[in-house]
Design brief:
4 copies of one chain form a homotetramer. By secondary structure, chain A is α+β, with helices and mostly antiparallel strands. Chain A has 5 helices and 6 strands. In chain A, β1 and β2 form a beta hairpin. At the C-D interface, β4, β5 and β6 of C face α1, β4, β5 and β6 of D.
Chain lengths: 183, 183, 183, 183
């Protein structure tokens, strides 16, 4: 049975529906997205993320909006605009990076202590298909939450009326910076 | 309806096991691995991967073995050996890269036509925790399958008696090279 | 004799100006960028780059300009604007990526045949310091020129009245796409 | 005047040998590596690097040797051996990564305080050509030296009797870890 169904089964188990799944079977689950396991250190993480996002002037300039904020998981949407395109009329990879980096950064930020600031150390983006669509959604998720370093990944989907397509992926490193003693 | 949900529906329907899953639940599925959707172009992909793996001399040198070969999905295991460590006794990041790169490369290779050779264009690795454990498993999965370019990701787990820990992630680009007209 | 020294010798010989440079000095040269060795396949590469750049609407939106176009080497400048910043008032890493990616892409484009289009496959950016300054210059250079694949690197400098600081580096893969037979 | 030209001027001035170099020539210098500007915090950095390198068991396993250790600059050599190859007889990208990662890591380590340990956070490698040759040299250089974070780059050259070829490039992030308070 596939890992995908395992995940399904496990999830269902936790909802008290399929309690007889053997243990050796659930071991496969560790490749599941684990964002839901994260405990935010600051109960006010949502308002902290929203406040910081509102201070990213570039988000208003490109008309991006924050649509999901959960522990270790943030989603940002961007409508298509001709003003953001490269020479073929697709969204420029740098603009895709802009919302994916912020999705990763704020996903990490949800897990940081209240006094911390978030800084991107590095990221890498793979472009899988032209960024063509009516709007775009960057889904950022934390994969590792450390004391000061965080690793997050983002997927970018291009959406039109009927379709949804994965067009880019990102993996990046974020840092929690204490304003009292910056790196 | 989104492509992801279409896929989910298909998977669920085709197994006939969980037909009564409520809609709000399927929203969780957006992180599901989709490798099983890939159709190999060569029905003999498994023997082709096994043959090529057996020709990677470095795999015997480090004692790595191929443990799973599915369409767009390959797993490689490596036992811990002191001879492969860096200065703190952990597996060297380059050795972790060796099995992760081969896991990505062969995951892509499962989807290539019979005459193709596989070439790594680039990869990036994030190290999440020291590679300490009894043995290690690199799980490589294709995220995009193109005509000549493939994007794959790998996770590396360190395993001991009771525990399993994600210690590294990789994203890379692979190329199908036709020996008659190489890049 | 090494390829690097061959190159140096060639360069020096071909200028006939510095034939008596002592050995200890030529050692400095081993890190010299070698883009000037590239022969453009299209003598009209400059106008082709300028035309394509003018079609990148995002460049006008962020007010970036093309300042240097040489074989395998392109520079793009961006003035600081509050509208392009993240939460601390620095230029957002995605905007830095926008001009660095275009600098890499057009550096590769200078070496492509006239009919080709350029596509970014992937890039990675390391952020070395906050992008604070009056204006910014992305310097993109080709490191490998292949038949269809190119590898380029970019450095981003933040400049103020008296100072110039390296704030980010990028390495990326670009592809020459023939519109008649796209990847 | 730009920081780069300041640096150049300083270098040239400090040697008092080439005060009359024409402007068009000094333009070549803008790509010069600046590692020699780094001041090691520990005068014993060389023996510290050599000690740590000797503790990387994998280096003996693959027969790599440390050939240059300067502030912010380390070179590692590896002879070709069939035991380290992938399926086409070239050195496996993971083995190339092994010496490039160590070259980056030790380049950063030369600049760390005496009590620090060095940890790789992430790296990305671009493969420019097959790693074919008699031996290989990884040249690692620091591009940014911070309080705890370092960014370094490495180039990998494949060498044979008469030729030397750039076959791979790496950019990575390293961390100075204080054993008393690890990340």
């Amino acid at each position: 049975m596939s890992g995908i169904l395992n995940y399904l089964t496990f999830t269902l188990t936790s909802t008290n529906e399929y309690s007889d799944i053997p243990d050796h079977f659930t071991n496969c689950f560790t490749r599941i997205d684990m964002s839901s396991q994260f405990e935010p250190r600051d109960p006010d993480f949502k308002s902290r993320v929203m406040q910081s996002f509102s201070e990213q002037s570039v988000m208003q300039t490109i008309n991006a909006s924050l649509v999901t904020v959960e522990p270790g998981h943030v989603e940002i949407e961007l409508p298509y605009r001709r003003e953001l395109t490269q020479q073929d009329g697709f969204i420029h990879a740098g603009i895709s990076s802009t919302i994916m980096d912020s999705a990763c950064g704020y996903a990490a930020f949800t897990l940081m202590p209240p006094e911390a600031r978030v800084l991107t150390i590095e990221f890498k983006i793979n472009l899988l298909a032209p960024a063509a669509g009516d709007h775009f959604r960057a889904i950022g998720k934390v994969r590792k939450s450390g004391r000061s370093l965080f690793v997050a990944e983002a997927d970018l989907y291009a959406m039109s009326d009927e379709t949804e397509k994965l067009v880019a992926t990102m993996a990046g490193t974020l840092m929690a910076v204490n304003p009292q003693k910056p790196e």
